[in-house]
Amino acid sequence: MTTSTSGSALHAGAPPGRPILEARELVAGYLPGVNILNSCNLEVHPGELVGIIGPNGAGKSTMLKALFGLVKVRSGTVLLDGEDITNERADTLVRRGIGYVPQNNNVFPSLTIEENLQMGLYQDPRRFIERFAAIVDIFPTLGDRRRQRAGSLSGGERQMVAMARALMMDPKVLLLDEPSAGLSPVRADEAFIRTRKINRSGVSVVIVEQNARRCLQICDRAYVLDQGANAYSGPGRKLMDDPKVIELYLGTLAADVEQAQRGVEEADKGERADKGERAGKGDDDAPGAHVG
Ligand SMILES: Nc1ncnc2c1ncn2[C@@H]1O[C@H](COP(=O)(O)OP(=O)(O)OP(=O)(O)O)[C@@H](O)[C@H]1O
Known about the structure:
Number of helices: 11
Shape: globular
Number of domains: 1
Strand order of the largest sheet: 6-7-8-3-9-10
Bound molecules: adenosine-5'-triphosphate
Largest sheet: 6 strands, mixed
């Protein structure tokens, strides 16, 4: 499988079948006459974890906002499960199965964790008990600390609450805008692990990230955007090995990438061992229910 920029190879490595979410030739922008996205494409297949990386100002966050109806799409199409949802309102999209976690201001600081999660379900409040239990299965901490005000939490914990709130409506696809932004390396790593955990619980995920290498390590596939257009794409680990991507976007030497890869493989081993141990104890985090 090679990384590529054109034709069907643009989605190289994607599973067969219809994408759950698809952007076709999106043109979008904020100011009249200025396009930030210039014919951008993206596919997310059921169960995939798809990354969007690229330099500052490439249009990564704008892509998420265009998918979620927060930036007007001037031409092109967004499809959810084959249905046209281009320029639908965000609340409609939430009802139809898309969750979105913005980079900033993503919790209500004066509300408790539980109240924040209630806000995520304001369109369907009767499902609170069932959905809260499902979320606590993925993030047990939130159950233990449900009465704590979100404003008293650390940046990493607030990010977890924001993700959990978006999951309350049981979305088919979750859009995450730079979940590691502003976090220390350790907390950033937890945000990536959390992202993978959400994905393994069955939710398709699109993640925009500045931390390109770490993003490529956890993604099934990724798209590299540059100046609002698709530059490269392919399976995450293939992109990590692509000398052009390394030179232009990862800003590092291949040896560093290999070292990073070895690091994540070690972490994966630890994660698997940890899961196996917990599964053996009949823990809720056993594979198949939701994954750690
Ligand atoms: N609300 C806005 N109004 C006008 N221009 C905007 C707005 N938001 C973003 N832009 C511009 O759109 C371009 C793309 O921004 P965007 O945030 O999508 O980039 P990005 O790839 O996510 O970069 P970064 O990683 O730096 O956030 C930038 O030139 C930015 O200045």
